[in-house]
Design goal:
The chain has 311 residues and is α/β, with parallel strands linked by helices. The protein has ten helices and twelve strands. The protein is elongated.
Length: 311
């Protein structure tokens, strides 16, 4: 049988007073009722907690242990209750935010700063996860909010586009295409394109392939399984491959001074859509607050105006 918080509080009153009569008065209950509750607690724990005599009441060794641990348990329970109430009211909570790796250079930074400003009581727990996995993690309850690149639709997950931007080429300063101000897709014929595996962002991958087909060729693609972003950039800086990434990511990579430049990809332009996702069945005010902040970020920074360069 479980021990209720109420019974623990009864026990603590007796342990502090070492007198059933005074403890009963303090608790505003009858002494027989208090004695009955303590006996039931001892039966549940299968050990005596007090040594009773006509003159005094003393704690047993087990009683002293419970007197030490009970306040800790009661305080933890009270904290859990308060945090739950605050989370339910949207005042304070922990938000588990899953983001695709390419958001970490720009969009994620802007969003985290805005959340800190708008909701200082929120604790944001960011987790780097590939786009295709984010909807499933939301459904499973592992995440509260997701930032995914062209995510696959999934029942139980709502979403809306947070940022739309062109795809740019990321390449070494020594690459033969680096001298051009823009790179037509047809110029990527015969070039090895470095991409994430299709399964990690299928719609984004397919959009790139479709643009190449429109330009009259099938692309040569090299995809690495779950590669670290920095390792991919290092490979681009020293090799002949060309990466294709959303413009904001490409610009930040080029500005990092790693021997990389970015160039607009044109004829046709390829679009990248970053969506914010959340579970359909989570009506919490905290999630609504995060979404409101994300929408304000999109409006403030022009993320949905489809500029040729990131805002």
């Amino acid at each position: 049988m479980d021990v209720s918080p109420r019974v623990l509080r009864y026990f603590m009153a007796v342990a502090e007073e070492l007198h059933f009569g005074r403890a009963a008065m303090r608790l505003y209950i009858s002494q027989p009722s208090l004695s009955h509750q303590i006996r039931k607690l001892e039966e549940t724990l299968e050990t005596p907690l007090f040594v009773r005599s006509s003159r005094r009441v003393q704690l047993t060794a087990a009683g002293r242990t419970l007197a030490h641990e009970a306040p800790i348990a009661l305080a933890a329970l009270e904290q859990a209750v308060q945090l739950t109430r605050r989370a339910g009211s949207g005042i304070a909570t922990t938000i588990r935010l899953g983001y695709t790796p390419i958001t970490s250079f720009d969009t994620l930074t802007v969003l985290l700063d805005a959340l800190q400003e708008d909701h200082p009581d929120f604790t944001i727990d960011p987790r780097e996860i590939f786009s295709a996995e984010i909807p499933e993690r939301l459904c499973a309850g592992d995440l509260d909010i997701g930032l995914a690149l062209s995510p696959p639709p999934l029942d139980g997950v709502n979403g809306e586009i947070l940022r739309e931007e062109p795809v740019s080429a990321v390449l070494s300063t020594r690459h033969r295409l680096a001298a051009a101000r823009t790179i037509p897709v047809k110029d990527l014929r015969g070039v090895t394109l470095q991409l994430f595996p299709r399964r990690l962002a299928p719609a984004y991958y397919d959009g790139i392939v479709a643009a190449c087909h429109e330009a009259g060729f099938s692309p040569q693609i090299r995809a690495f399984e779950d590669p670290p972003v920095n390792a991919m950039l290092a490979r681009l800086a020293s090799g002949r491959e060309v990466g294709l990434a959303p413009a904001s990511f490409a610009e930040h990579a080029a500005n990092a001074g790693t021997g990389i430049v970015c160039r607009d990809v044109v004829d046709p332009s390829i679009r990248a859509e970053l969506s914010v996702l959340w579970p359909t069945n989570d009506p919490s005010p905290a999630i609504a607050s995060v979404l409101a902040t994300a929408r304000r970020c999109a409006e403030r920074h022009g993320w949905l105006r489809s500029p040729s360069h990131s805002a």
